[in-house]
């Protein structure tokens, strides 16, 4: 009797293996494929795409203390999606293209978290469809170029004058200051003392700590 019970249990175990590893995952996958998906946010944008809608932002750091990182997201219609992660080595510009949706007439913005040598900012706006400079970020107009120089962030727009278009010019405008700390080592026994460097203009974003940098948008 006891032997029979054990045998039955063994058989049940063997029979159940394909269910656990094959049948159940298959059902999960099939149900997942059949269930309605959330609308792709890019659908509307794709329909409205035209060369004139092609925009770009580029980043260039001339600050040689280390790599600068910008982790950017796009905010639209109360929602947001990942946009681009810039890892900037000094003097190596990077560019990213985007097509802000024209439907709905809602504001489209790109906000970044900024990090450089243990200093962090969030909500650094690099594009805002409602701002006056927005049309200058169109690829046709030359795009928007952000320059990080000596603790400042500048926006450079426009194109260099050429023979064919001598009226063209580039413009450089200050966006604001970057947060930077200076640290002093007061003897080896004391912890390093850091304080924020003096700055003359508003910061380009809000100061955050390392934890917020890693875990928060
Ligand atoms: C935007 O312009 C860039 C540079 O001209 C091009 O490489 C890219 O394919 C364009 N993107 C779209 C969606 O038109
Ligand atoms: C974009 O610009 C508009 C108009 O100036 C402003 O109300 C809005 O707060 C800005 N959005 C962001 C994310 O800065």
Spatial ordering of strands, largest sheet? 4-1-7-8-9
- The best one-word shape is flat
**Multimerization status:** single chain
Structural class determined from secondary elements = alpha+beta
Structure summary, number of beta strands: 12
Determine the mean pLDDT.
Answer: 85
Keywords: Membrane, Transmembrane, Transmembrane helix
Domain DUF7771: 110-207
Pfam families: DUF7771
Protein name: DUF7771 domain-containing protein
Provide a brief overview of the structure:
The chain is of the alpha+beta class and 217 residues long. It has three helices and twelve strands.
How would you characterize the overall build of this protein?
The protein has 217 residues and is an alpha+beta fold. The protein has two domains: 1-34; 43-215. 21% of the residues lie in helices and 37% in strands. It is built from three helices and twelve strands; from the N terminus they run H-H-E-E-E-E-E-E-E-E-E-E-E-E-H. It has helices at 2-34, 42-47, 210-215; strands spanning 55-61, 68-76, 79-88, 94-98, 108-116, 119-128, 144-149, 152-158, 170-177, 181-184, 193-196, 206-207. The strands form three sheets. The protein has a five-stranded mixed β-sheet, with no helix packed on it. The N and C termini lie far apart (63 Å). The mean pLDDT is 85. The chain binds 2-acetamido-2-deoxy-beta-D-glucopyranose (NAG) (2 copies). One 2-acetamido-2-deoxy-beta-D-glucopyranose binds next to loops. Residues 107, 109, 125, 128, 130-131 line the site of one 2-acetamido-2-deoxy-beta-D-glucopyranose (NAG). This is DUF7771 domain-containing protein. The chain crosses the membrane at residues 12-34.
């Amino acid at each position: 009797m006891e032997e029979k019970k054990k045998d039955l249990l063994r058989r049940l175990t063997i029979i159940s293996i394909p269910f656990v590893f094959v049948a159940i995952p298959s059902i999960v996958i099939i149900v997942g494929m059949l269930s309605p998906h959330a609308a792709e946010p890019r659908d509307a944008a794709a329909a409205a795409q035209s060369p004139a809608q092609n925009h770009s932002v580029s980043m260039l750091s001339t600050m040689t203390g280390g790599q600068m990182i910008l982790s950017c997201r796009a905010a639209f219609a109360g929602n947001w999606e990942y946009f681009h992660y810039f890892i900037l080595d000094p003097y190596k510009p990077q560019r990213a293209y985007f097509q802000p949706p024209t439907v709905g007439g809602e504001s489209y913005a790109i906000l970044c978290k900024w990090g450089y040598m243990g200093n962090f900012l969030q909500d650094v706006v690099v594009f805002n469809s409602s701002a006056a400079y927005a049309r200058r970020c169109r690829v046709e107009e030359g795009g928007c170029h952000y320059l990080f120089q000596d603790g400042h962030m500048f926006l450079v727009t426009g194109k260099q004058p050429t023979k064919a278009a001598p009226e063209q010019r580039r413009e450089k405008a200050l966006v604001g200051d970057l947060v930077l700390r200076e640290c002093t080592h007061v003897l080896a026994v004391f912890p390093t003392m850091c304080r924020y460097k003096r700055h003359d203009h508003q910061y380009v974003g809000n100061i955050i700590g390392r934890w917020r940098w890693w875990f928060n948008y």
